[in-house]
Amino acid sequence: MTLGGGLLIAGTTSDAGKSVVTAGICRWLARKGLRVAPFKAQNMSLNSFVTRDGAEIGRAQAMQAAAARVEPSALMNPVLLKPGSDRSSQVVLLGKAVGEMSARGYHSERREGLLETVTDCLTELRRTHDAVICEGAGSPAEINLRRTDIVNLGLARAAGLPVVVVGDIDRGGVFASFFGTTALLSREDQRHIAAYVVNKFRGDVSLLEPGLDMLRDLTGRPTVGVLPYAHGLGIDEEDGLRVSLRGTVRESVVAPPYGADVLRVAVAAVPLMSNFTDVDALAAEPGVIVRFVDRPEELADADLVVLPGTRGTVKALEWLRERGLADAIARRAAEGRPVLGLCGGFQALGERIDDEVESKAGTVEGLGLLPVRVRFAADKTLARPVGEALGEPVAGYEIHHGVAELLHGGDEPFLDGCRVGPVWGTHWHGSLESDGFRRAFLRRVAEASGRAFVPAPDTRFGELREEQLDRLGDLIEEHADTDALLRLIEGGVPDGLPFVPPGAPGGTD
């Protein structure tokens, strides 16, 4: 059987740009008319998506599938780990949750069977596509995890893939990172490291070239791209928003408001925040400013407060109360100022939560702002609902263990949830990407807030996303050696790549 070409994009670190480069290569190849698919064997992320057939995968892979102009599939992300604490994660296998597992248990017990599963999925994608662009995780030089690796060199060796390593030069030390990453690998692993890509470069490339020449002399491997620092890419993030710095501003369109006023949106940065990409559609609106906050005083000037999804609803409630945010949100509601709860945030706004599944905390009082009781079920709801709300068509997706019982309908229904006064809640993720519905909702928010804000009539979120994906394709087409990339994709692992000492500790292969 002839398989399609393949390439694995690894990184010197997490957040080096693997997702961006993978998506960019997918879009570049799709524009060339090739059938291309993304693949990530194992993904750790709280940002996930539901495929049309009801499978849960990482949002980064769904974004990469959009870049490739193909429908996302569980084959593209066979293993998804959703952290529930620093030490354990929910394991989602081929789109379905199969249980919780500690990090030690996962790495010691599951690797052998999972490697076979992920290689089978990759083989099927390669059978049906001209090329499959795989994304690694973290760094391939995590020598403590090499024995159980199924996503970096473990996958590359099992599937015969050449590897391109991406380094973030904006962090500094990129040459040391490239050299060290290669030199810490065993001889057999190094055989797959074929090239490097520099990401986030600012300045004159000619000043970098002597270093690239020296890197090639040291390692025997070329640099096949120097990608410039690109502002405002706005793609779906994988491993979680960096919210350690307060007041993080979500990337948004740099455009003046369409009306006389702006709208300020404050998103509570709750623990285990999931699918915070829901607010991207708000940030895409001219005149809407989205910030992530963790103090009650930061809600004072907000026209809308969003309680986002979370994989720890009970933990999020504790956090909101400890920080004084729960009281601040209750005061907002009493004053008639808008609050929106999405998925776990919707559950937190209810009256009571019965949870013997996620936190195992039993019965916990919610914020009491919506007439909802939530019972956590062992089986996860995964759905792609469509409907109508606020007089507009709307579509979304659902990912939750909590089953909400509406004690009464509130003032009006709101998707699968309800509205009571200025407080809105729904399990639907992605609903704000529906343009007409988003505009109708923002008009309600502006009216309740007394703002002379008017949604722009021509903002189309889907088109903005397509423009961003084309920008990623342009990065590859304009700043990478595309002929060299094609040779790797079609020809596989190059012959004669030299060994860079010292190699893996202990001489392990």
TrEMBL record:
It comes from the Bacteria. One of its GO terms (biological process) is cobalamin biosynthetic process. Keywords: Cobalamin biosynthesis, Glutamine amidotransferase. Residues 8-239 form the CobQ/CobB/MinD/ParA nucleotide binding domain. The keyword Protease does not apply. GO terms for molecular function: ABC-type vitamin B12 transporter activity; catalytic activity. PROSITE patterns: GATASE_COBBQ, GATASE_TYPE_1. The active site is at residues 343, 429. Pathway: Cofactor biosynthesis; adenosylcobalamin biosynthesis. Residues 264-435 form the CobB/CobQ-like glutamine amidotransferase domain. Belongs to the CobB/CobQ family. CobQ subfamily. This is Cobyric acid synthase. The gene is cobQ.
